[in-house]
Design brief:
Nucleotidyltransferase, domain 5; 2 domains; 5-stranded mixed beta sheet; 24% strand
Length: 260
């Protein structure tokens, strides 16, 4: 079994996979103060009730945008799981070419998404990832990561609004029934949800114009399903695309190491 972990700025997603099949997935808050020992405790608290034997984990793949936690997780995997984690970065042979001016600037989660979408889509693709930031990643049919766009994330923007506007308060991001809100809560829900959908559809439209391709648009991330129902651009929703990408990267890298 593979332990795949995506450490984001807001949430950490932990998955257990058999091959490319996701068996279990947990989403927990990211805490930059977490130590390797705390990671070990957290992992046991999640896996034991699910009946997952950590001794059956034969590989670990990690993508992290929180450098302070990368080392802590690697140390935990080495000590508690006796595994040498594969940490995603542009220095690995990912099976894709990276056309960014500086490949080291591309987030590891975006690289994992680019790898994962090639398994999901036969042809050019745009990945829209709803995370701390909303990212747009453009992948050509021949497996080149061409770049993309980064916008403020849904919750990041909403929380900033609630913090700065004294008369506004947090709302659940349930689907709005109307664009015309008849209460503060309804107005906020309309503005946030339809605002994000409009942003996604417009950025995708502009990418299509510049690229002159007919890409498949895939949404991922914890909020993907909430917004995709209103989007004209999003065609496929795969909440666990990053974990799929990690599994594929692990297969490729560990296979290459085994054959060396």
């Amino acid at each position: 079994m593979l332990l795949a972990v995506d450490i984001g700025n807001t949430n950490t997603v932990i998955g257990i996979l058999e091959g490319r099949e996701l068996l279990f997935r947990w989403r927990v808050s990211t805490d930059a103060r977490r130590t390797s020992d705390e990671f070990a405790v957290l992992l046991r608290e999640l896996t034991v009730p699910a009946g997952v034997e950590l001794g059956s984990v034969t590989g670990v793949a990690l993508c992290s945008v929180v450098p302070a936690l990368t080392g802590a997780f690697v140390a935990m995997a080495e000590s508690a799981l006796k595994a040498d984690p594969i940490v995603v970065g542009p220095d690995l042979d990912l099976g894709i070419a990276i056309d960014y001016r500086d490949p080291s600037e591309v987030g590891p989660d975006r690289l994992a998404n680019a790898v994962g979408v090639r398994e999901l889509v036969d042809g050019p693709a745009i990945v829209v990832d709803f995370g701390t930031a909303t990212t747009f990643d453009v992948v050509s049919a021949d497996g080149r990561y061409l770049g993309g766009a980064i916008a403020p994330g849904v919750l990041t923007s909403a929380e900033n609004l609630f913090t700065r506007a004294a008369l506004l308060h947090g709302v659940a991001l349930d689907p709005p029934s109307s664009a015309i809100g008849r209460s503060t809560e309804e107005s906020l829900r309309s503005g946030i949800v339809f605002g994000v959908v409009g942003q996604v559809d417009e950025i995708v439209r502009r990418i299509r114009e510049e690229w002159e391709e007919e890409p498949t648009v895939v949404a991922t991330g914890g909020l993907a399903e909430k917004f995709s129902i209103f989007s004209k651009a999003i065609q496929i929703v795969e909440p666990d695309l990053t974990l799929l990408g990690l599994a594929i990267i692990h297969e490729r890298v560990s296979g290459a190491q085994g054959g060396a």
